[in-house]
Write a structure and sequence with these properties.
55% of the residues lie in helices and 18% in strands. With 567 residues, the chain is of the alpha+beta class. Among the domains are: 204 residues, P-loop containing nucleotide triphosphate hydrolases (Rossmann fold, 3-Layer(aba) Sandwich), CATH 3.40.50; 148 residues, no CATH class; 34 residues, no CATH class. A hairpin with a 2-residue loop joins β1 and β2. The longest helix is centred in the middle third of the chain and has 47 residues. It is elongated. It starts with a strand and ends with a helix.
Amino acid sequence: MLKSFEVKDYALIEHISVEFGSGLNIITGETGAGKSILIDAMSLLLGERASTEVVRKGAQKSFVEGIFNVKGNKKVKSILEENDVDFTDELIIRREISLKGSNRCFINDTPVNLNLVKEIGNLLVDLHGQHEHQSLLRTETHIDYLDEFGDYQILLQQYKKVYSELLSKENELKELREKESSIKDKRDFYSFQIKEIDTISPQEDEEESLVEALKILENSEKLAELTSEVYLLIYESDNSIQTSLSKVRTLLQKLSDIDKSFSDALSESESSLVQLQDISNFIRTYNSKINLDQNEVEGKRERLGAINLLKKKYGGSVKSIFDYRKKIGEEFELAENYSGKINELSENIFGLRKSAGSLAKSLSKQRGQAAKLVKRGIEQTLKELGIQEPQFKTEIFNAQSESETGVFLDGKYFRATTKGIDEIEFFISTNPGEDLKPLAKVASGGEVSRIMLSLKSTLANNDKLPLLIFDEIDVGVSGRIAQKVGKALKSLSAYHQVISITHLPQIASLAEHHFSIEKVTQNERVISSIKKLPESERITEIARLLSGEKITEASLKSARELIGLRE
């Protein structure tokens, strides 16, 4: 449930902070006082997008925050843990909309993206705005209402996954057929390029080793000259290093015989003689292996030149040569086996059509079962809302495809969407003896409101959303029916926290927590504020709803009588 809600610098709202209770929370106020603005601000907590235009004039950013009690909510806990957000019994969602264009979202003080806020919001709140009256009259939305009620979300996701793969493979086949002539035209050219690359067949890091080898081969004479000179200095000159160092070792031996402190120096000289021997051996061996073969030099130069030519033609690096070779290899293989690839892809697509068809059939069956339960729930609720003999029916249509497209089921092709093969439409009769007609043709605004409330009630009792918000669900109703709508909301509030904006005293009188929004002028600026009404002010507010601005003793008496009707 929503424990508290805070808004700052949002449209006409300078700063409000309100604590809601369990059960039925009613919000009233004059037209233009800011009731719809409050609902818009609440929608931000559910992940709705926002414009910088909502930032109150003179402020730098808008701020909305809601604190929810989510104790025991395993779904919320699971999603938060998957996204590395700490879970506590109190969930804090915060949104900030800045004039700079930044839109920051936080859950439990952890920065998150808007999609996560929306996902969590969908688990906590069902917000019924005024526009939803119209959405119910759009036939294309009916399938979503039914699916929201049905307990087959896993099956629906499985179907969507297979159908998405089917669409992907269909696009792949379409693209393959579109470039058939292009692939075949390039086959000979690709064959030439493959042969050119494979003839050279450059190896990874080969270029670097060739450059290093050429550097050595091209300097063979200089290497021979320098190594000979080094060997001469070490061993063969009159005053060679080896001869001088040997004399030093002999003298250090004599000194050490006299004074042991020369022992370390003697040891170092002996080590130096050994190292000098190693150096001279390396120099002599290296000198003996120096290759002055000009043919080898030319061979490596040609090899390096061939690799550089491939680099110039195919992307500038050996890696780009490898990548291009792989690409044209696949294209060439496809050109060589084009018919086989088409057949393989077509068989794959047909298999996906059958899998999607099987899942779609199961979906249709599940929807049929859900439709019976929805019918029962809506007809019962409509009776409670004053429609004496309502009839409600969910028609499930599907149509065969005119070509071999869509999904394959029971030996036939059916038109399909991401939601299956079904088209859903609600039909209703609200008067005895009348035929069922499409819901979209229901004319009475009051009837639409009651149908929406009955639909919401039926769905809510099924999915157990913690909070239901209704923005003027009572559009088009009055008098005795208004009382019934209020009782329906009251009944819902036994299982859910309900927040409802209303202009009808019959509904407001049933509130367990009554809030009033008013518009006032401060410092020559209009602002909206909200407060929770004590019992005495509730009577006055309901009297205002009954009689308008001029509150009479008769309206106050009627208000007391209405409040006395609370069950």
